[in-house]
């Protein structure tokens, strides 16, 4: 009976290794998708101050029809909004977490808890980006 148990354990171990490899491939593929989204968010985030400036100027022109607008005040308001909606730190951390995930897959031993922790951190950064942004394309 011992040989039967040994061969069953070997088969089970091989199945687990095979399943782990398939999961690894799937997760790495998803990381690539996430990374491309992060780069898109980064591109959009760079345009937010100018977009906001144009919207603000148009609203003010409509509201203050004919009254001159103080450009310095508009620049100040834009700077305040840009600071509140800046997501470059979160983007940098997200990129770092993506790299950590990839590196973790090259480690020996159990990596599940470490991956879980990194995913939680990625989720925090994504939530922060979504709450800071008013642009639908970033959320």
From TrEMBL:
Xref: Pfam families: YicC-like_C
GO molecular function: RNA endonuclease activity
Endoribonuclease YicC-like C-terminal domain boundaries: 41-138
Protein name in UniProt: DUF1732 domain-containing protein
């Amino acid at each position: 009976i011992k040989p039967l148990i040994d061969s069953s354990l070997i088969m089970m171990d091989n199945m687990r290794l095979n399943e782990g490899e398939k999961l690894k491939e799937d997760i790495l593929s998803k990381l690539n998708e996430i990374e491309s989204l992060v780069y898109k968010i980064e591109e959009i985030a760079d345009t937010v101050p100018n977009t906001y400036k144009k919207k603000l100027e148009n609203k003010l022109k409509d509201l203050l029809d004919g009254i001159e607008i103080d450009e310095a005040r508009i620049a100040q308001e834009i700077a305040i909004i840009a600071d509140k909606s800046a997501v470059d730190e979160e983007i940098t951390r997200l990129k770092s977490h993506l790299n950590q995930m990839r590196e973790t897959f090259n480690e020996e031993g159990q990596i599940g808890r470490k991956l879980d922790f990194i995913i939680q951190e990625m989720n925090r950064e994504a939530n922060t980006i979504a709450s800071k942004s008013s642009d639908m394309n970033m959320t």
